[in-house]
Design brief:
Blueprint lengths: L7 E2 L4 E2 L3 E6 L2 E10 L7 H16 L4 E8 L2 H6 L14 H9 L7 H19 L3 E9 L6 E4 L3 H7 L6 E3 L1 H4 L4 H7 L3 E9 L3 H17 L11 H11 L6 E9 L6 E3 L10 E2 L4 E5 L2 E4 L4 E4 L9 E8 L2 H12 L3 H6 L4 E3 L6 E4 L8 H7 L4 E5 L2 E5 L10
Parallel strand pairs: 4-5, 4-6, 6-9, 7-8, 8-10
Antiparallel strand pairs: 1-2, 3-5, 7-9, 10-16, 11-13, 12-15, 13-14, 15-16, 17-18, 18-20, 19-20
Helix pairs in contact: 1-8, 8-9
Bound molecules: zinc ion.
């Protein structure tokens, strides 16, 4: 374990080093990367990593693989702001990364400087190792139970489903240019965990528990090597009691920079609160926003910065998950899709389908979701569906 530099407090936030801790195991295994505080007003993630780093340093377990704990947006963490120039969790689309690589470093914005440093730390590691797992720790402006989200691939499911917290499908895909997107594109496993409200002690505790259990799920540690493993399991199970184990995003209230937005209600909403279709939930640019469908409210926005007002999700029953897993394993899933009326292969993009909504009489969205095609956009009056690359089979 490398020594963590001394942390100095500033008037607002805390100054974190980029590398919060690292460990090179003597035994073979995956490369486990955890990042906290990619949003500067979410230091809970970095604190959770520091707790685990401290414990690993004391325990000196026979770690399988390698461990790397990182802090995300150092400048914003010091100012306790989500970001300074740009959201560091929205700048990882292929074009953005390519233009950053081509840009002179002197021209970098605050976040581009952070991004350049993160790329420098991770580039080689993502290239040279087959089995990298990235855990991305967050907190939110609203209260509510912890949960995980991920690009819906079978390999990501394996880690996310091992944690006793709800898995939200379609949330990660709703975000353009997310950090995990970059990791997926490199063919690795990546899962994000939301621990609860910013600044609460239990948020740090939830994130710490999720990190320990992920290390076990990844095979880096055995359950009996983690002190208080049962406490970590119980803590997360208790925090999420009564919430469906898998929820799929049905609606995203996307905001643009100029929007004014506030949640409206006789009390503050929490993530996972049930809202009914037609209920007044927010006000945007002075206009009422009604819930477009009945479901679970997620990540209602109670802070100034942010590009999503709220999300609404709905329970996914285990049968559909099992069916989708099976369908993805069989070789004919793509051929089956082409049997649907109005569905064609995309002329240029691999693993993409074009749906003509005038011809497709069935509900194509549901069918495509089931097979992991959760990203859609319009192209010449037709819907184009794409999905996360499952990547080449790896250890994880
Ligand atoms: Zn965040």
């Amino acid at each position: 374990m490398t020594k963590t530099p001394t942390l100095t407090r500033t008037s607002r936030g805390k100054r974190y080093p980029r590398v919060l801790g690292s460990l090179g195991g003597v035994r073979p295994g995956p490369t486990f990367v955890v990042i906290g505080g990619i949003h500067g007003n979410e230091p809970g993630g970095a604190e959770a990593v520091l707790r685990v780093v401290e414990a690993l340093r004391e325990l000196e377990p026979s770690f399988r693989g390698r461990f790397l704990g990182l802090a995300g947006n150092l400048a914003a963490l010091e100012c306790r702001r989500r970001y300074l120039d740009q959201d560091l969790n929205r700048v990882w689309a292929a074009e953005s990364v390519a233009s950053l690589r081509a840009q002179e470093p002197e021209r970098d914005s605050f976040e581009q400087k952070e991004q350049r440093e993160l790329i420098a730390v991770l580039d080689d590691l993502l290239d040279k190792h087959d089995d990298v797992l990235v855990l991305d720790l967050h907190s939110s402006s609203a209260a509510g139970a912890p949960f995980s989200c991920m690009g819906d691939t079978i390999r990501n499911r394996r880690i996310a489903f091992a944690l006793p917290i709800p898995v939200i499908l379609g949330l990660e895909e709703a975000i353009d240019g997310g950090f995990l997107d970059w990791v997926y594109r490199r063919g690795h496993v990546a899962v994000a965990v939301e621990g609860g409200r910013h600044g609460e002690v239990r948020t740090v505790e939830n994130l710490e528990s999720a990190l320990w259990l992920s290390l076990v799920a990844a095979g880096c540690l055995l359950a009996n090597e983690v002190p208080d493993i049962e406490l970590h399991r119980r803590r997360l199970s208790n925090a999420t009691a009564g919430i469906p184990s898998v929820i799929e995003i049905r609606h995203r209230e996307k905001l643009v920079l100029e929007d004014t937005f506030e949640m409206v209600g006789d009390r503050e909403y929490r993530s996972f609160d049930v809202v009914h279709k037609g209920t007044l939930v927010a006000r945007r640019n002075g206009r009422d926003v009604l819930a477009p469908e009945t479901g679970r409210l997620l990540l209602p926005l109670y802070q100034g910065q942010g590009s999503d007002g709220f999300f609404i999700g709905r329970r996914v029953r285990p049968f559909w998950l099992a069916l989708s897993k099976w369908l993805r394993r069989i070789r004919f899933s793509r051929t089956l899709l082409l049997l649907l009326p109005g569905v064609h292969r995309h002329p240029t993009l691999p693993d993409a389908f074009v749906v003509d909504p005038r011809i497709a009489r069935t509900k194509p969205v549901e069918v495509f979701h089931l097979l992991g095609f959760r990203r859609r956009r319009w192209e010449d009056g037709k819907l184009v569906f794409t999905r996360r690359n499952e990547g080449t089979p790896r250890v994880l």
